[in-house]
Amino acid sequence: MRGEASLNNIYTLDGKVPLLRSVPFGLQHVLAMFVANIAPIMIVAGVCGLSPQDTASLIQTAMIVAGVGTLVQLFAVWKIGARLPLVMGVSFTFVSIFCFVGPKWGFGAVLGAAIVGGIIEGLLGFFAKYWRGLISPIVAACVVTGIGFSLLPVGANSFAGGFGAKDFGSLQNWLLGSFTLVSCIGFNIFAKGNLKPLSVLFGLVAGYILALFMGKVDLSLVASAGFLSLPHFLPFEPEFNLSAIVSVTMIFLVSATETIGDTSAMTSTVLKREASDREISGSLACDGFVSSLSALFGCLPITSFSQNIGLLAMTRVVNRYTIATGAAIMILAGIFPVIGALLASLPEAVLGGCTIMMFGNIVISGLMMIGSCGYSQRNIVIAALSLSVGLGFTQAPQMFSIFPDIVRTVFAENCVATVFLVAVVMNLIMPQEGEVKARLPLK
Q1: How far, in Å, are 188, 197, 198, 248, 319 from residue 194 at the CA level?
Q2: Disulfide-capable partner of 148 in 71, 274, 325, 362 (CB 3.0 to 4.6 Å)?
Q3: Are the C-beta atoms of 211 and 176 separated by less than 8 Å?
Q4: Reduced to 3 states, what is the DSSP secondary structure of residue 182?
Q5: Is 436 part of a structural domain of the chain?
Q6: How confident is the model at residue 438, as a pLDDT?
Q7: Using CA atoms, how far apart are residues 429 and 221, in angstroms rounded to an integer?
Q8: pLDDT value of residue 109
Q9: Three-state DSSP state, 116
Q10: What is the DSSP letter of 84?
Q11: What's the CA gap between 158 and 177, in Å, rounded?
């Protein structure tokens, strides 16, 4: 009975769970975000002309920084950290702006802008209670919904083999993705009790085994990986270019909105309550200051990972000690390259088979948040316009061609930024008077 009670603590924030029983649940989170954590590094390093050796070193650093950031969110350092199960990783939100800044001013300008922008976001986080009113519940709900929709193409691309893959959309990738998805669903249906939350891990393992038999797993990185590697402080000299700093700081504000949305989505859908000012403030401070720390080690900014919010929503496993095992695995994956190389060998199609369902969970979470705000005429207008403009306009990015480069960089293909801007503006200008308070039933 005592062991059973301990395992049941995976559904509570602070209950103690035996280490060996925690590891599988933590590993799920690592596998869910691993590829997405290193992909931004590979993209930005490529456009900035970094060597393969530098790129490999930054990938290892990315895993360590993600693990450290996750631990800070879980347990907090002073006022930095939300004390919530928010899994951190290198943010895709910054990829487009860094692909603009890097080739124009160099990778040093990327890091300098990230250092300054992170400090600004961190300081804003400390004062979140004074400006959080701009991010009303309906604004946060729209942003969460936008995040979910923005991730669906990511899941679909993974399912088909990964963006730019030579065998994109091949029969083999369809089989791998479908088999993984069916394995997840089947395990969720037939598993009993506390085993149900392991459906994603089961699907990933089952898909990986099938991929091995199909010859789709590349183990060459595992064979060539070294034994031990530590990150280097200031491997590149930061450059503080004002134009780069202004551009990147704007994206930090967008990232802050995503973090507010992720934090709100997690507390609303899993903990069944609103996020407190302390939690919002701590999560933003962690986003900002750890991003600056990351840049000092040559890495890109980090933020909360929406796909892991989807995993939390699906499994309901919120225990911070359990999630901490995942953070420890990330740190080990960075220190011992062979672990990272083994995790990196997971085929994209296998990952896509799981993430496509997880990302759908985020969309549903956002829609549930909109419903919890009430279907007043005011909320309907804000949600309808922000989502239609945010999702619609970014499907035709060429319509932004009349605007300056910085506007196109921030809004043309970033639906979350556009949803956020429209939702905030509409929330400010839509009158409160005459608002229908009753919640209208959905038909």
Answers
A1: 11, 7, 8, 43, 13
A2: 362
A3: yes
A4: helix
A5: no
A6: 42
A7: 55
A8: 94
A9: helix
A10: S
A11: 8
Q: Select from 258, 254, 300, 247 the least CA-distant residue to 115.
A: 300
**pLDDT score, position 381:** 94
Which H or E run includes 30? helix 19-47
Count of CB atoms situated within 10 Å of the CB of 7:
18
Question: Using alpha carbons only, how large is the chain's radius of gyration in Å?
Answer: 21
* Closest to 21 measured CA to CA, from 9, 30, 12: 9
Residues of the chain with pLDDT under 70: 1-7, 35, 96, 193-194, 197, 340, 343, 433-443
Backbone angles phi, psi at 225, to 5 degrees: -70, 145
Q: Residues of 166-192 as b/e, b for ≥16 C-beta within 10 angstroms?
A: eeeeeebbebbbebbbebbeebbeeee
In a domain, 417, yes or no: no
pLDDT by residue (tens digit) across 178-217?
A: 999 999 899 888 887 657 767 777 888 899 999 999 988 8
Residue 337 identity: P
Indicate whether 49 belongs to any domain: yes
Across 327-350, b (16+ Cβ under 10 Å) vs e yields bbbbbebbbbbbbbbbbbbbbbbb
Which residue range is the domain that position 54 belongs to? 19-373
- Angstrom distances, CA of residue 399 to CA of 265, 346, 395, 407: 31, 38, 9, 12
Amino acid type, 246: V
CB 244 within 8 A of CB 112: yes
Amino acid at 10: I
Residue 345 tokens, joined: 């060998």
Q: What is the pLDDT of residues 222-252, one digit of tens each?
A: 777 777 778 889 999 999 988 888 878 877 8
Amino acid identity of 221?
A: L
Any domain includes 3: no
* CB 184 within 8 Å of CB 357: yes
Give residues with Cβ within 8 angstroms of 327, minimum separation 6. Answer: 26, 66, 67, 68, 70, 71, 74, 87
What 3-state class would DSSP assign to 88?
Answer: strand
Residue 284 token pair:
């933003």
CA separation for the pair 358, 314 (Å, rounded)? 7
Cβ–Cβ under 8 Å, residues 417 and 411:
yes
> What DSSP character marks residue 411?
I
Global pTM reads 0.72
Q: Which of 15, 17, 28 is nearest to 305 (CA)?
A: 28
